[in-house]
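Per reviewer request, we include the raw input and output of the structure prediction for the construct analysed in the revised manuscript.
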Amino acid sequence: MNRLCLRAQWDAAEAFATAAAGHVDGKGLPGYVATQKKAGTDAERAAQYNAAIPKLATPQAGEAFKQLEALHAAGSADVIQILAMQATGEMLPRMGRPREGAARLTEAAERAEAMGWLKKAAMLHLKCAIASWQASDVPTTARAFDEAYRLETARGDQVRMATMLSNMAIIDDAIGEHERAIERYKEALAKQEALGDKRGVALTLGNMAGAQQGMGAMQAALANLERSLAMRKELGDEEGIAISVAGIGRHYLTMARSAKALDHFQRALKLLQRLGKRHNAALVKDSIGRAYIQLGDYAKARTAIEQARAEKLVLGDQQGAAKSLATLAELDSRLGNYERSLERFQEAYEVAKQSRGRMD
């Protein structure tokens, strides 16, 4: 049996090592694992999964997607089927189908929970929340976070419970409940600090800054962003450092301090490119374009946003590319190219409509 399959199975059976701590992840799993180790076809299916996954980042992504669809459509719920459902569920939002992705991830989470694989089930609900968020489906996002929190509570994972609280606060913030969001963030922070979870604290501080900005508490927001950055530097988390620097840049952009925002964005971009984080780098290029718009340098703005859109298309992020297109439409409007602006807005709208309405 290949290494990936073994790793997945023993991750599923993590309760063998944690039963003394009261975890229930392994309920019913000893027999399941024994059965899977004897299954003659499991190695073949695992090999098919292993062969398909690398192709998702290549021009063969369509072929790989079909192979993974076939894997999860056949057979009973097992590790390989759930992993295949996860892979396709994560891919669907990039194809402009986030609602389908969310539904697929929810189904995978339910199958994992039925198997007793609570760790994977909680993670899948979290991924469902991300897909639903992309589709602007706030109720489904909130339910997915609630499910993830329930499962982490059942597992007794205090670190993940605090992380879910922080995630749930994002929903409060999105619907304008800034004060409730702040209270959740404070509760999450207290738990994370007590647990010594510095990565969690850094993430929650950055998220809380967004809610503080929504309340107009700009100095408090900036202080939390800078504290988050300092913690990530202490941890040596280079991607986190880049995200924090970009977050501070967006803060300055909100304050119309365009030159300072641009400096932060360029620093973040350089680090993300060095790390090979292409999608986050594309998002920062969008921000660079907006900074140039504020500065009135429309030529540089267009170059940055077009580069961001092209990179998102290469990565299969159709929704993200549509957002870049909408920014280009805004730029055309500023330059008096109203017909071109309308065409681009219409194109971006059609992508968004298709993504959000496909499962309605």
